[in-house]
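One thing: can you check what follows?
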Amino acid sequence: MGRGRTFKHYVADHLQNGLYTYIRQYAEEVPVSELGLHSYSIADFDEAEFVDITEIKFVLVNDLPDMAIAFEVVLEAEFMVKEVTRRYDKEDSCFQWFKLRCRGDLQKDLADFEVLGIEIYDKRKPQPDPMSDELVPIIKKDKLDDVATDFLKRYYPEALESPTPVDPNILAERMGLTILKQEIADDASIFGQIHFRDSEGIKAGSILVDPRAYFLRTLGSVNNTIMHECVHWDKHRKAFEFQRLLDDSISKISCQVTGETSGSRADAVRFMEWQANALTPRILMPRQMFTKKAYEQFTHHLNNGASFLDALEPVIDELAEFFGVSRLSAKIRMIDVDYKEAIGAFNYIDGRYIKPYSFEKGTLSRNQTFTISVADAGILSLTDPDFAKTTAHGKYLYVDAHFVLNDPKYIEQNDDGKTVLTKYARGHMNECCLIFDVSCKTDRMSAHTSQCAPWVSLGGWL
């Protein structure tokens, strides 16, 4: 966000007088030795006078229950120290960093702001529940499942006890939220909207869902929309209230189909959308219970004579139906919980789904694939001499969107005379297929879906 839009700037603009008064009183009350001051020109001094706050270095914000926040203001203060002898008075300016522990309630517009204590700043001490300078929670990627678990413990604990679909309607009710079906945008580009404050005749705590979403999208997508807004309410109310302190006209967050978020495109907004997108499937499909349900479904199919590869796509569909999510969400969650074989399921390319495949774990790195479209293969043959050389003399054939070793072990003719992968090849893609690196080129950060164009390069071959 621009200058004046961060909490550090807000503290400097609105709370610095209170900080100044506190430091002045503190400096008058404590012995000079406790101020930790050092002068290069005066060896011994027994007087120190607080002059001013020279700079607020940064503000560390920690989350508290409800709408309260704790924040630590790290600032630099100037002192005038004096050495007094019979012969002369000697003065020097010196500086010290202090950390002031503060708290306030955003629901009260921080009118209850108070300083709880002060100490010399020690950067080695960890920050317990950090928030960004825009009051967005700081959530590391490897902690997303933990955050989702905490969310469910508070609102839907039964989903952590056994495989249980999380009903977003029930969850919203438990959170004190109201779901309203109402058209939001004329072009149906906005399916979900959360109101943090009363506005336009809509009460705070209302989730608007465009009724056209129930016809244009799957139930899983509608559930995802509602849950997405619930996450915003739980995690981002403080960020919203802070921005409202700066701009009283804002009242809601809108999430568009294309992923664009109405209003600011600042980093804070992008972080909030990333968090809502990342947490929503982890709440709808909690890791342990999702893994347990997947194991149950695979066991059922395998006990009925199906191979793992044959069971892969049916299990994904069964999980999607059970947890009330889309097929794609269930597939991605399977990959996320270490069913990496799901990468080979439901791959839609060149206007069709290709047959599922599997491979040895560890074969593919992140953003690698065995699958490539006809168009990308053509581009690669013109731009990558190594790829063109590898595929030029028939060692590899392009079969079912893969470049496969031309060997009867991996390629055969079906009853219609079409060249296809053998069942063995589909179960051992690591033995016979070229690997491609995939990257996404985006021209904007999206909230729900990335606007990406694939750029494929030859990642390796056997």
Residues 7-131 form a domain with the Nuclear Transport Factor 2; Chain: A, fold (CATH 3.10.450). The chain has four domains: 7-131, 141-284, 286-346, 354-462. The radius of gyration is 30 Å. Confidence is low (pLDDT under 50) at residues 257-265, 442-462.
